[in-house]
TrEMBL record:
Annotated Pseudouridine synthase I TruA alpha/beta domain residues: 9-104, 143-243
Protein name listed in UniProt: tRNA pseudouridine synthase A
InterPro entries found in the cross-reference section: PsdUridine_synth_cat_dom_sf, PsdUridine_synth_TruA, PsdUridine_synth_TruA_a/b_dom, PsdUridine_synth_TruA_C, TruA/RsuA/RluB/E/F_N
Originating species: Geoalkalibacter ferrihydriticus DSM 17813
Location of the active site: D52 (nucleophile)
Any single GO BP term: tRNA pseudouridine synthesis
Class of this enzyme: isomerase
The enzyme's E.C. designation: 5.4.99.12
Recorded family membership: Belongs to the tRNA pseudouridine synthase TruA family.
Origin organism lineage: Bacteria, Pseudomonadati, Thermodesulfobacteriota, Desulfuromonadia, Desulfuromonadales
Catalytic activity: uridine(38/39/40) in tRNA = pseudouridine(38/39/40) in tRNA
Binding site for substrate: Y110
Amino acid sequence: MANIRLVLEFDGSNYAGWQRQPNGLAVQQVVEEGLGRLLGASVTLISSGRTDAGVHARGMVANFHTERILPLAAYREGLNGLLPPDIAVQEATLVADDFHARFDARGKWYRYCLCLNPVRSPLNARYSWQLRANLDVAAMTAAAADLVGVHDFQAFRTSGCAARTTTREIFSIDLLAAEKLLYIDVRGSGFLRNMVRVMSGTLVEIGLGKRPVNDVKRLLLQDQGQAGRTAPPQGLCLMEVWY
């Protein structure tokens, strides 16, 4: 019996998220079906987490156990030959029998991409949230600093979140400008449902002057009021998972 770890990259535009579900095609389903054809047996993937419909990934980690031992290249090149163009295995490695993609994860890096352009940008539309107004990046940076650390992020999750605790640790938040794009890089121990998207939406509202810079502190203290809008899914990408 072998335990194989995969690092997957995918464009989530055409999928109902990572996790298998009855009402839409999920990335997990497509990869499991490809593995089933490759190995001649059904396979269940254990993933490092979930992504919502329309969210992308460069570093989704998943593992599976198999009795059929193949060269590692087969789990990558062979599986990639069975996957659609918008999903690909970047790495395939043999790991310890007790490795668990979810429970062994130590942290994750998410990137939210904003396109700051007064004119519609077709090439960026698939992977960013386009804003046609100027943002106060200095105000956003100051507010983002208040999110770093161990906090109760109850205000920064959406309905349906089944997490037993809403306390999480954010290691860092960096805002990086690249021509007409602004990246919000969030690194943390773990995340609630839509947490990064709600954080990004709140920072955008601060950058637009719709909220004061100190509003993040108020939300973390569970004062009355709601966080900002949930930023659109296409701007979010899971970049890396650490072990």
